UniProtKB/TrEMBL annotation:
Pfam families: Glutaminase
Gene3D superfamilies attached to this UniProt entry: DD-peptidase/beta-lactamase superfamily
Name of this protein: Glutaminase
Record-level Gene Ontology MF annotations: glutaminase activity
HAMAP family noted in UniProt: Glutaminase (MF_00313)
Binding positions for substrate per the UniProt entry: S76, N126, E170, N177, Y201, Y253, V271
EC number: 3.5.1.2
Amino acid sequence: MRKPPQNPHDLSRHDLDDILGTINEDVRQRFGEGKLPDYIPSLAEVPKDRFGMALALPDGKIHAVGNARERFSIQSVSKVYTLTLALSAVGDELWKRVDREPSGDPFNSLVQLEYEKGIPRNPFMNAGALVTADVVLSSYDDAEATLIGFMRTRSGNPEIGSDEVVAKSERESGHRNVAMANFIRSYGNLENSVDDVLAFYYLQCSLRMDCVDLARSVQYLADAGHCATSGVQVTSAEGATRINSVMMTAGTYDAAGDFAYYVGLPAKSGVGGGIVAVVPHVMGICVWSPGLDDKGNSLLGRYALHRFTRMTGLSVF
Ligand code: GLN
């Protein structure tokens, strides 16, 4: 007779520390794989032999392994939080200025922008993140302080701030982002000056956080918008569902299909090697390992998430 199906969401079935320990050992065998993002010189200097992973549960409990307390540049992981701030400020009006479709193109691609008249495909590719940054800039009196305060409150870490060296490195090498912002502005889809939008964008990308900070910071998306660290309702339950859906279809750019196939969780990556992922109604996750695959996602981070959902059954599928 067929056994009744087991519910993977029942966390008492899993020894999470044991699972993290196994993943950590396996990942360390593969250190050296992946490539550093040499188009941002200061990120190309980070050692590749690092791996951290942290899980944040709705009761505030944390499970962590490896280099989970070493800070790194969060880069595009920040786009989850600016999207949350933009949606809180302008609601569905945001979708008039940026779409929510997967792009199938690399994160820094410009090609669709011209025939789609300056409306980026989604808020997670660079073009869409620039429009989202513009909305945040227009909506909050001091957008930089608002974002930094948001990250500190979500993570419970008052020391979070930006890394001026990384921001400067991006400013000096960000020719593509400059082109993109000007192109979008030519369609009238930026309200603020290109310089102001880029300055905010580089600030958000250069925030330094560790895996525990980021797992805590994304946990509200795993609990219907409620942040366990601060006790605050960050967004509505529906808002959390919507943000998770965009992460699933576009959070890892032109690898979103592959991520759905192998990992099966809403996720957002950054070229600093961090990835946040959400097990809806169960936990927030952050993994970090600096070596990237050819789509700009952490190669070993993705492997770790794949192992995690295989071992626990905790994918959304
Ligand atoms: N700051 C990076 C850039 O603009 C962010 C890209 C990423 O993390 N995917 O290229």
